[in-house]
Amino acid sequence: MGIVNVTPDSFSDGGRYERHEMAVAHALRLVREGADIIDIGGESTRPPGNDYGGGSRGIPVDEELGRVTPVIETLRREHPALPISIDTMKPEVAREAIRAGATIINDVSAGTYDEGIWEVAAANDVPYILMHGHDPAARRPVDEIVYDDVVEDVFAFLRERTERATAAGIRRVIADVGIGFSKRAADSARLIREHRRFLDLGVPMLVGASRKSFIGRMLGGIPPEERLHGTLAAHGAAALNGAAIIRTHDIRPAYEFFAVFSHLTADPRIPAPNASV
Predict the structure, then answer these.
(1) In three state form, how does the secondary structure of 120-140 look?
(2) Which of 69, 77, 213, 238 could form a disulfide with 100 if both were Cys (CB 3.0 to 4.6 A apart)?
(3) What is the spatial order of strands in the sheet that 245-246 belongs to?
């Protein structure tokens, strides 16, 4: 899953693809490099108290739609069969994005922002990704968040939200442990190391560790743009531990990594990437 942030303030590439034509060009390049899914977001979810200069602020529905819908429409015209994910917490944005051509909803709030987004996913029969850790109401610095047991606490949350989303009529749920969201570096590392626990949820798992701060801290505090090699290591470990979808900024390195990794491991859990979309 290739990331396209149409935002001025995302932690890693904020402002780089803010203009419509730049975002479209970037998305098309990611497809050429081997992305199977393009994830388009118009509102940063950068948390407070991290190493990127503080948290992001929410934006109105109209502003978010103005950022994402032109990109989705253009990308859909260029690639009629491409799976396009809309990264949003807002039902109104999800609904209009689907009308524009999106085919997946990626909700980092897991419905805690507005459960109306479940109605949108169910009514349009699209896959729905729910994630642990992003609470737009709390906005607490990560150092203030302590778990009794991060693996079991995250598992319990994802199980509850998965069951409720399914009961709301969503047929295809995907879960995400939320690496880097409301988690200290040690928490994120443990969630990847023990990720096979989450296969007990019975749904496909997505992992997005791309350029996250825990990688930077493991490597002596390096900035996001220098975290590619650490990202590949994190995503390789996540795949070995059951992740079905890898969400990343850097598609070509990830594609080449997994193309070789799948052959060397000879592990059925690590399918070779598929560039045909």
Answers:
(1) HHHHHCCCEEEECCCCCCCCC
(2) 69
(3) 2-5, 38-41, 84-87, 104-107, 128-131, 173-176, 205-207, 245-246
Would you call 256 exposed, middle or buried from its count of C-beta atoms within 10 A (0-12, 13-18, 19+)? middle
Which residue in 46, 90, 211, 247 is the catalytic one?
247
CATH topology of domain 2-259: TIM Barrel (3.20.20)
Active site residue 247: yes
Q: What is the pTM of this model?
A: 0.90
CA angle 233, 235, 240 (to 5 degrees): 95
* Element (DSSP H or E) covering residue 245: strand 245-246
How many Cα atoms occupy the beta-carbon half-sphere of 163 within 13 Å? 8
pLDDT, one tens digit per residue, over 164-206 is: 999 999 999 999 999 999 999 999 999 999 999 999 999 999 9
Handedness of CA 106, 111, 113, 119 (dihedral sign): positive
CA distance 93 to 90: 5
Q: List the domain boundaries for the chain.
A: 2-259
Residue from 271, 212, 225 nearest 245 by CA: 271
Active-site residue, from 46, 161, 212, 227: 212
